Amino acid sequence: MGFLRVNPDIVAEAFDGEIVLIDIARGLYFSLCGAAVELWQAFADPRTADEVLRTLAPLAGAEHSAAMQNAISSMRANQLIVEVDAPVFPAGPLVAGDAASVPPVVQVFSDLADLIAIDPVHEVDAAAGWPMRPANFPDVA
Fold first, then answer.
1. CATH class of the domain comprising 3-117
2. In 3D, which of 7, 8, 1, 4 has the Cα closest to residue 84?
3. Cα end-to-end span (Å), the chain
């Protein structure tokens, strides 16, 4: 596995220990809590999953180590973090916060996908009404 980094196409905002992310292209939104917040922040710079786990997993304890690996896998599967080339300059030291000791939670929501992905300025069809769902919109469940 190579270097991973937060997907630059994802919009993120932190709220009281939670990070809410929106993938506008696919219309999905996500909630990261606990150690998942630390994982997201760790991948702000390109790093390997092993490097991040070596730093954060000891703080999480043995019971949460596997959950952290699963959270990274979920973030990769949902394209929240993506593989990138090796960085030209090494990332700064990774410092873990208090949330690293809390089990990671990655939640995916698709209930607003149609609304998030619609571009009401450009997706106009006089016969169909306004706004309309793009013809190439992916099916999400």
1. alpha beta
2. 4
3. 28
Cis peptide before 120 (omega within 30 of 0): no
Q: What is the CA radius of gyration of the chain?
A: 17
Say what the pTM is.
0.74
The first and second tokens of residue 141, run together, are: 């469940």
Residue 78 to residue 30: CA distance in whole angstroms: 9
Three-state secondary-structure class, residue 130: coil
pLDDT tens by residue, 33-79: 998 999 999 999 999 999 898 888 776 666 778 888 999 999 999 99
Q: What share of the chain is helix, strand, coil (3-state, %, to 5)?
A: 30, 25, 45
Domain ranges of the chain: 3-117
Backbone angles phi, psi at 109, to 5 degrees: -125, 135
- Spatial CA neighbour of 108 closest among 7, 26, 6: 26
> Do 33 and 105 contact (CB within 8 A), yes or no?
yes
pLDDT at 26: 82
